[in-house]
Automatic annotation (TrEMBL):
It comes from the Bacteria. One of its GO terms (molecular function) is transmembrane transporter activity. The keyword Iron-sulfur does not apply. This is TRAP transporter large permease protein. InterPro entries: DctM, TRAP_DctM.
Length: 475
């Protein structure tokens, strides 16, 4: 058995342990250190001090001390320390805790109920108005937070009971909430895009610019589906009565938009605009967003010590998870490549003589399947580094590939049986809402995601338009 075969076995063990439910970050570190000990094993280097002590007739304590020291003199431990230090000092990752804090503090600012009721009043004459308002609220709120579980849960507590009370079809209502809640991992400022950029070495700024139009396009496809289906099957979304909406003058509607929609939209646009137009780095813009989130919570009189403490705790916990995933992934990938695993996979894939389109389809199918049991963070930091070195052979731009991956990962939250959005929503739904109904409600949106990927492939200018316009063509 060659070292390359051992590396492939290392990858298979990782997949098996993930399916068994072991913590991914610590599994990566354990496998990296364990197999790395074998890969970097050098008895002469490790026990040189022990041999010298033995030759000089050292006592038992000295021999034991030098032997133990030699055991830990394997280069894998140096690699592990260096990888940890590299991750901690990575400037790109600095934006993650700041964006997370912005999301958690905005989540606790109690503006979602105002936002939903305002958008419902504004869109009351649109077919499926309550679903449209829910989708718009999900899109805006998901963009501000980037936390799928929080958005789906809050909208499940707020919008779903209102839609069910208005006699909306259960599948129609639950599907739009689950799909809308996932958009935050695609539309900037998205943490997924930061993680992908750090993994692939792409500029976060170009990544944000490239993802903006595809993200809005996917949200637009969702909106078209919601409205068209409400027109074709009006029994799914009955039109609201005056009692449901109430009477509002144009001035009242304008004031409602100004006090609920405008502040959050302004915060998002300010952060995104500062990044895209080069006014601030992503980390600096994230700091502005965190401060803006605090100001927004204070303006809505929702900034309490308890909420601030919860936001800081959740930010620290999530950031630690992402950082240790990066440390484990970097250690695992270094050992995997050192053993020849990356070259083995590269030779195997290139030997299949696939066209670029065939490779793209195969890669997206693999990512789609991985989305069933895994979170997007695990897919990005573990498996994307395997695909990235193969892209030059097929002439595929990592930026374009990353956008397709980000769109594809929407399905990670929508594809049964492990669709986390469905479980988030089921946890706060009335008892009569069945999990199978939620699954069926999400299925059309999975098809829309696939349609969006096809459109992006056929019209790549959707991805490149903004980056080329703002920063010039990258050569």
């Amino acid at each position: 058995m060659t070292d390359a075969h051992i590396a492939v076995g290392m990858l298979l063990i990782l997949i098996l342990t993930i399916f068994l439910g072991f913590p991914v970050a610590f599994t990566l570190m354990a496998l990296g250190v364990g197999f790395g000990y074998y890969a970097y094993f050098d008895a002469g280097r490790m026990w040189r001090g022990y041999d010298r002590a033995l030759e000089s007739g050292g006592d038992a304590f000295t021999l034991a001390q030098t032997w133990i020291g030699g055991f830990f003199n394997n280069r894998i431990f140096d690699l592990f320390v260096n990888q940890t230090y590299s991750v901690i000092q990575n400037d790109v990752l600095t934006a993650i805790p700041l964006f997370l804090f912005m999301g958690y503090i905005v989540e606790r600012a109690n503006i979602v109920d105002r936002l939903f009721s305002t958008l419902f009043s504004v869109t009351r004459r649109v077919p499926g108005s309550m679903a449209v308002a829910a989708l718009a609220t999900c899109t805006l709120f998901a963009t501000a937070t980037g936390i799928v579980g929080a958005v789906v849960t809050l909208m499940g507590l707020l919008a779903l009971p209102a839609m069910l009370k208005a006699k909306y079809d259960v599948r129609y209502a639950t599907g739009v909430i689950c799909a809308g809640g996932t958009l935050g991992i695609l539309i900037p400022p998205s943490i997924l895009l930061i993680v992908y950029a750090a993994t692939s070495g792409i500029s976060v700024v170009r990544m944000y610019a490239a993802a903006l139009l595809p993200g809005l396009a996917l949200a637009g496809f969702y909106l078209i589906y919601v409205v068209v289906r409400a027109i074709l099957q009006p029994q799914l979304a009955p039109r609201p009565t005056k009692e449901d909406v109430g009477e509002h003058t144009p001035v009242q509607l304008a004031w409602m938009m100004l006090t609920s929609f405008a502040p959050l939209a302004f915060l998002i646009l300010a952060v995104l605009g500062a990044i895209l137009f080069g006014l601030a780095t992503p980390s600096e813009a994230a700091a502005i967003g965190a401060l803006g989130g605090l100001a927004l919570a204070a303006a809505y009189r929702a900034l309490t010590w308890q909420r601030l403490k919860e936001s800081v705790y959740l930010t620290a916990r999530t950031t630690a998870m992402v950082c240790w995933l990066f440390v484990g992934s970097a250690t695992f990938a270094s050992v995997f490549a050192y053993l020849g695993g990356q070259q083995f996979i590269s030779d195997f894939v290139t030997g299949l003589d696939m066209s670029p389109l065939m490779f793209l389809i195969l890669a997206q199918i693999i990512i789609f399947i991985l989305g069933w049991p895994l979170e997007w963070t695990e897919i990005i930091v573990i498996f994307i580094p395997i695909f990235i070195p193969l892209l030059p052979h097929f002439g595929i731009d990592p930026l374009f590939f990353g956008i397709l991956v980000a769109i594809n990962l929407q399905t990670a939250f929508l594809s049964p049986p492990m669709a986390m959005s469905a479980y988030y929503l089921k946890g706060v739904s009335p008892p009569h809402v069945k999990l199978t109904d939620i699954f069926r409600g999400m299925m059309p949106y999975m098809l829309i995601v696939i349609l969006c990927m096809v459109v992006i492939y056929m019209f790549p200018s959707i991805v490149y338009m903004l980056p080329n316009l703002l920063y010039g063509v990258q050569r």
